[in-house]
Amino acid sequence: MLTHRAMKSxxxxxxxxxxxxxxxxxxxxxxxxxxxAQSNPGGGLMMAGNWAKKGGGxxxxxxxxxxxxxxxxxxxAAQKLDVLAKSPFASDPARRSALxxxxxxxxxxxxxxxxxxxSFTAALNADxxxxxLLADRARALAMKNNWPKAESDLSMALMVMPDRADLYIxxxxxxxxxxxxxxxRADIDRALRLSPGNADALLERGNMKxxxxxxxxARADWQQAxxxxxxxxxxxxxxxxxxxxxxxx
Length: 249
Description:
The chain is mostly helical. The chain contains 14 helices and no strands. It is 72% helix and 0% strand.
């Protein structure tokens, strides 16, 4: 099933900036603040605060939210982003959706799936079939073990983008958790055809093989997952599974 770490494999880059610099800010000032927020969150938060005192308004608040994410103050960041999404700053539907999406990701990073679901649902109001937003909400639903709704969101996302390996992996994980093993295995196999050697898919397939009694096949998949991306979190989980299986756990 989806691991806690995998469920937080988020589109984190969205938290760094909107698609275009806000019209209300001089691009150089906004860009400088955002760059500082990313490279030095503490300095970025201070810069955003000073800018806000000089009338920086919503763009300064957005910069502060990004800095707060970098400081792991996820709840504060999410609250700021939700407020911005409801403000005149977000009069453009695309910007409003992006801000709600950023808020949802920040809530997820803070382990607040209920709040994340609300933010992602608000983001989807602008485009109910956006596959990335649907995948994000599915991750939040998975954190609540609401597998049927997570599977539904992922199925809708796959109707829009049927060649996304990551979506098949997520849906396969949800179906695995629901006990729909043949459907889950079909999704994981499809993901591996689209993305051969994908570590997340191999980890999931190994889990299903192990549960079915195919310990040797499971270990082979976990070993391949560990070597496909040796420095990533999936490899760490695969190595732990290998260690546990060697000890008979």
